[in-house]
Amino acid sequence: MNRTPLSARDLGRVAARFKVLAEPARLQVLQCLRGGPQHVGALIDATGLRQANLSKHLQTLHVHGLVGRTRAGRFIHYAIADPAVMTLCDLMCRQVAALPASRPRPRARAARAPGSRAAAPARSLRAGR
Amino acid sequence: MNRTPLSARDLGRVAARFKVLAEPARLQVLQCLRGGPQHVGALIDATGLRQANLSKHLQTLHVHGLVGRTRAGRFIHYAIADPAVMTLCDLMCRQVAALPASRPRPRARAARAPGSRAAAPARSLRAGR
DNA sequence: GTGATATATCACTGTCGAGTAATGTATCGC
DNA sequence: GCGATACATTACTCGACAGTGATATATCAC
User: Fold this and answer.
1) Which CATH number covers residue B69?
2) For the CA atoms of B114, B118, B119, B124, what is the dihedral angle to 10 degrees?
3) How far apart are CA B33 and CA B38, in angstroms?
4) Three-state DSSP class for B70?
5) d(CA A111, CA B89)
6) CA-based Rg of chain B, rounded to a whole angstrom?
7) Which positions in chain A touch B27 (Cβ < 8 Å)?
8) Please, how many CA atoms are within 13 Å of residue A40, restricted to the half-sphere of its CB?
9) C-alpha gyration radius of chain A
10) What is the pLDDT of residue A76?
11) Main-chain dihedrals φ then ψ at residue B76, nearest 5 degrees
């Protein structure tokens, strides 16, 4: 059985880690780094991000331990530090690819009990606020 | 090999789905729903969230297809709609549990090339901005 | 030393979203 | 019909963070 009733603190930590991945720019960077370590300039070219912006994202990834950093002369090479994260991304990608529609859809207006009437939309719509 | 160079649109979708999970309150709700479907009142008790707040989080989870909704009389039961998401959460939990330190740590001040001098902290620290 | 290159950081703006109180809507019992 | 209960939605405040231009720092070449 999968019993892991996380504490509030752990919930926060898990959420924080998800938040690092909840940004297209950072996912893009991780994707670039899959092919191997890259220095910042190469990442700028590959992603199209501005230097300052990319630098901040790299900082975020680094602080959270998702990427490692090595200086080589004037260049700094970044590399994926935790391969397990890529596993997570792949899993999520597969889930997204398997999604029914193209975007978050509200799944019908509201849940209705099988026996209840349908529709009956906005009985008296009270124009004035 | 793991070649999946996502398009910009897909990156956005993956990030959006991660963002849904990047919130302690929503993780808490999902955790509560693991034991089986619950109605809103029960979730309020279980999570301690305010009604309006919880309702918004449930809406978010529902719109993104993570939970399903069924009306039963005056009650509305929510249930996990996509078990795969829980797999993702478990994976992340295990990664977080395996983290070295307790919080996002900056991993040493800065990367240094193996041959370069150590330290030499702030050569002339230029007090004035 | 000077200048050039590579990267990080600062200060700022704008947007997004969590939380809240108040209000709206649907269902039940009478 | 009425009131009560269960939930959703609205309107708002506030903090977090992405993006940007300017500037600071570090390393190299000379």
Assistant:
1) 1.10.10.10
2) -100
3) 6
4) strand
5) 26
6) 22
7) 6, 11, 14-15
8) 18
9) 22
10) 97
11) -120, 125
Residue A87 to chain B, least CA–CA distance (Å): 9
Does residue A30 belong to any structural domain of this protein?
yes
Is the pLDDT assigned to residue B17 strictly greater than 60?
Answer: yes
Residue-wise pLDDT for A78-129, tens only, equals 999 989 999 999 999 998 888 766 555 544 444 443 434 333 333 332 322 3
Tell me which residue range forms the domain holding B46.
10-97
Predicted TM-score (pTM) of this structure: 0.81
pLDDT for position A4? 59
**Cα distance between residue A24 and residue B15, in whole Å:** 5
Across the interface, of A23, A95, A112, the residue whose CB is closest to B84 is A95
Q: Is A72 on the interface with B (CB under 8 A)?
A: yes
Q: Within a 13 Å sphere around the CA of B55, how many CA atoms are in the beta-carbon half? A: 6
Q: Kindly tell me the sign of the dihedral angle through the C-alpha atoms of B67, B68, B72, B76.
A: positive
Euclidean distance between CA atoms B4 and A90, whole angstroms: 8
pLDDT digits (tens, 9 = 90+) for A60-90: 999 999 999 999 999 999 999 989 999 999 9
Provide the angle, in degrees to the nearest 10, between the axes of the packed helices A83-97 and A8-21.
70
Q: Over the stretch A9-27, which tens digit does the pLDDT of each residue have?
A: 889 999 999 999 999 999 9
| Domains identified in chain B, total number | 1
